[in-house]
Design a protein that fits this description.
CATH topology of the largest domain: D-Amino Acid Oxidase, Chain A, domain 2
Structural class: alpha/beta
CATH architecture of the largest domain: 2-Layer Sandwich
Largest sheet: 9 strands, mixed
Shape: globular
Number of helices: 15
Number of domains: 2
Distance between the termini: 34 Å
Helix content: 25-40%
Number of strands: 21
Radius of gyration: 21 Å
Strand content: 25-35%
Length: 419
């Protein structure tokens, strides 16, 4: 390749975009990353920090339709919808429910498992021996339940995990508190996963360290608001940004929940929805759990981080432009007190981010169906931080003309293109 053929631009400086940039750089490309924010902001700033291959289970599930009304009505439930937004998401909801059939869930889990397997090693490989390695920690991961019956009610999901190589160990009764003394005694059952799991004590700092290494190795970062991808003679010609026009040779769109508008500009409209997630980080909680903990009933994760103890989760549907609903986020504080009776809730910060969600819970990874010089890496929903490094590696392999280490067809944008 000559110099122009080696030039490629990545739109997005979160974990997915930076992972694409580093992997392309390692394959000999001259890479520029563009984002309106500094690297490691957006969802890469506020996620739960989990590196957990067991998270290959999609939100789509066979029993969700019957459970959703109770979740919405529960004052501590994990879901909220701003009702004026409901008409705008009806088409998305219809497609989402079509993917809740058992056979579909099995297929989606296979697709997610391909992306999440080996996630800890992928993160370590991406960070190599650089500063990013400081922000990656192998760790057990604990799922807690109030009873054995509650665990049994999720046997379908645990079977999906076991069938795809996740090793588990079940704790009963006092074994739960022996494993983690801070947990309230009401939780009488838990599942421990250890092999291949881990977390980041500060996911934003991890991405910033990776971005810094990328720039030290010759990569370029431009902070600018991208408004449009300009096409000339059926090829990407430039990015129109708040800082002027930026010439293009090839382009990767990895802009999370904001990727949909660029795909639409390129004639490839996708049903990408902003599913808003929240976190609350307690600066001085008074407790330090030994590892991240998933509260299965509350659908949130507790992660011991450098900034404090983070409670992250919930799902709110209200669009990209609405202000955060921090009253909804306060549910995490109520759950924290139930889960850890001795916790101190006095000093905390709040955050909201937009998860990029598609109705089949699989991301779009691969080549545009309209422009051979444009590629996509977005829509990772709840597994962006987890699967970002592997996404970056397999897409870079594809762009470089190598055979990707996994089949990219389940993630093709063509599944959304009307024939």
């Amino acid at each position: 390749m000559n110099r122009k053929q080696k030039e490629i631009t990545v739109l997005g400086a979160g974990i997915v975009g930076i992972s694409c940039a580093i992997n392309l750089q390692r394959l000999g490309f001259i890479v520029t990353v563009v984002d309106q924010q500094e690297p490691g902001e957006g969802c890469s700033f506020g996620n739960a920090g989990m590196i957990a291959p067991c998270a290959m289970i999609p939100i789509n599930s066979p029993g969700l339709l019957t459970k959703a009304p109770a979740m919405l009505l529960d004052p501590l439930g994990p879901i909220a919808i701003r009702w004026r937004y409901l008409p705008k998401m009806l088409s998305w909801q219809f497609k989402f429910l079509q993917n809740c059939k058992t056979s579909k869930v099995e297929q989606i889990t296979d697709g997610l498992s391909e992306l999440t397997s080996g996630a800890l090693e992928e993160h370590q490989r991406l960070a190599a021996n650089g500063a990013g390695a400081t922000w990656i920690r192998p760790s057990p991961y604990l799922y807690i339940y109030e009873s054995a019956a509650a665990l049994a009610s999720e046997e379908f999901q645990w079977r999906l995990r076991r069938d795809r190589g996740i090793t588990t160990r079940v704790l009963h009764g006092n074994e739960v508190q022996e494993f983690e003394p801070a947990i309230d005694s009401r939780y009488q059952c838990a599942v421990v996963m250890e092999d291949g799991h881990g977390f980041s004590p500060d996911p934003s700092q991890l991405v910033k360290a990776l971005a810094s290494q990328f720039q030290s190795d010759g990569g370029r970062f431009i902070q600018a608001d991208v408004q449009q991808v300009e096409i000339v003679n059926q090829k990407p010609n430039s990015l129109i940004t708040s800082e002027g026009s930026l010439a293009l040779q090839r382009l990767v769109i990895a802009a999370g929940a904001f990727s949909g508008k660029f795909a639409t500009q390129l004639g490839e409209s996708v049903p990408l929805l902003a599913e808003r997630g929240y976190h609350i980080t307690l600066k001085d909680s008074g407790i330090t759990p030994r590892c991240p903990i998933m509260n299965s009933a509350g659908k949130f994760v507790t992660t011991p981080m450098n900034p404090g103890l983070r409670f992250a989760g919930l799902a709110e549907f209200s669009g990209l432009t609405e202000k955060p609903n921090y009253h909804f986020a306060k549910r995490l504080l109520a759950h924290a007190k139930i889960m850890f009776p001795k916790i101190n809730l006095d000093d905390f910060t709040e955050w909201m981010g937009n998860r990029p969600s598609l109705p089949d819970s699989l991301p779009v990874i691969g080549q545009s169906s309209n422009f051979e010089q444009i590629f996509y890496a977005f829509g990772h929903q709840h597994v962006g931080f987890l699967s970002g490094p592997k996404t970056g590696r397999i897409l870079a392999e594809f762009i470089a003309g190598q055979k990707p280490s996994i089949d990219l067809s389940p993630y093709s944008i063509q599944r959304f293109i009307k024939k």
